[in-house]
Amino acid sequence: MNPNEMTGLDIMTAFSKGLFPAPGIAKTMPMEPVEVEHGRIVFQATANATHSNPLGGVHGGFAATVLDSVTGCATHTVLAAGEGYGTTDLNIKMCRPIPFNAKMIAEGKVINVGRNLVISEGYLRDEAGKLYAHATATNMIIRK
User: Fold this and answer.
1) CB 139 within 8 A of CB 87
2) Which of 46, 61, 70, 105 is deepest in the core (most CB within 10 A)?
3) Which residues, 6+ apart, have CB-to-CB distance to 126 below 8 Å?
4) pLDDT in tens, 17-28
5) Can you tell me the distance from the alpha carbon of 8 to that of 111, in angstroms, rounded to the nearest whole number?
6) DSSP alpha helices (H): ranges in 31-143?
7) Rounded distance, CA 139 to CA 76, Å?
8) Please, what are the domains in the chain?
9) β-bridge partners, 104
């Protein structure tokens, strides 16, 4: 499989099936895709002690990274073969402290596709559906 010849949806589907190795950030921030469709992706993510802040809680960067990942990967699912993307804007609202060692569900959805920009939103929730953080993102489409 040549990623340069695959659509973004095909690439994200291959990642979710383990056909491509996970990127390094998925080891730093334990997360993996569990659902992939056009314009939408769902990850499972779990913060651990390596994600602690000076006050002893989960660092806000954990939520920011996971939400940047799901909004970006949702964007990736709408791209044509050979296209990439880059985050130009990421806005995060933290709703409550993220617990350690609890499986979190992160969902990213595309809400608008333009000629050069894709706008998406992301949610970080626990398994019961309680919201911990919300994000909106703008990604620039990069054509080679």
Assistant:
1) yes
2) 70
3) 99, 102, 103, 104, 105, 132
4) 999 888 899 989
5) 16
6) 60-76
7) 9
8) 3-143 (3.10.129.10)
9) 45, 126
